[in-house]
Amino acid sequence: MPEILTFTPNPSIDVFTTVERVVDTRKMRCGAERRDPGGGGVNVARVIQRLGGDCTAVVMAGGQTGEMLRQLLAAEKVPTACVGIAGHTRESFSVLETGTGREFRFVLPGPVITGNDWQRCHDALAAFDPAPRFLVLSGRLPPGAPVDGYAQLARAAAARGTQVAIDTSGPALAAALEAGVAIVKPSVDELRELTGQPLTDETQWCAAARQIVRDGRARMVALTLGGRGALLVERHRVLRAPALPVKMVSAIGAGDSFLAALVWALNRGAGTGEAFRYGMAAAAAALLSAGTGLCHKEDVERFYRDMPSHAATLE
Question: Which residues pair with 7 in a beta bridge?
Fold first, then answer.
């Protein structure tokens, strides 16, 4: 049985291409396309597999695109358990505007699922015996899923002794935190939405994250700051690391790579500081790949080795 499970209720086929300039009305002749299996938990599983971790991706998938998703995951040698649904797995479309370096991302809502679909997800996750050490719940919930869907899964996992990491937003995130998790990985915008506060500077970011920990909603808050790096907040300390200097190809999947490496390292018995540095290294490595190519192990290890001057600092 795997040591780490990821669950992606709304996975996607991620299509990436390039164009000189995005304009309205006219046809835009694009560059060669690439297709990757996508969705938050899928991306996390892909990275953990590349790092040598023991991980299985649990997905809800259906239709021809669902079959393509399974094939793409098999091609990357990611063990997968699929909960079949009637609807078609969604596609997402990303375009790099080569003339400016800007990225455009078009994200479809995904298929509508039923209460029976959701119950089968519960059953699929509960069927793993022994229970995994970590369960990563990642991505937005699909239409039809209960708002407290992740909260339900978090409670069930915790009752089996599994540590839960959550990466989502909006009401689903708020509900999951009320249930309590081990790790939450919001962006600053997601933390603003969660708290209803402007959170304009680092002092306010730390205070908001500390409040989540004090309230018992999460043991660890890993707050990603984009080009400004990241914060990791626990009850008795805050770790801060700036972003590594990287010539960015694409920012897509950097947050998923960060969470994957963090959980992978913690599962190996790494301390919080070491796991945080691996997360930073993976996020930087993801910037080197086009679209949802994500990070590669050799780049993660190289950035981790070269990180002394950028190491997380205790505050």
Answer: 58, 137
Mean pLDDT of 214-243: 95
Residues with catalytic roles: 256
In a domain, 241, yes or no: no
| Residue 11 domain boundaries | 1-22+30-145
Structure tokens at 156: 């069930």
Number of domains in the chain: 1
pLDDT tens for residues 268-311?
A: 999 999 999 999 999 999 999 988 899 999 999 999 998 765 55
CA-based nearest residue to 286, from 258, 245, 263: 258
Task: State whether residue 5 is helix, strand or coil.
Answer: strand
d(C-alpha 16, C-alpha 108), whole Å: 14
CA distance 40 to 289: 17
Looking up residue 127, the CATH number of its domain turns out to be: 3.40.1190.20
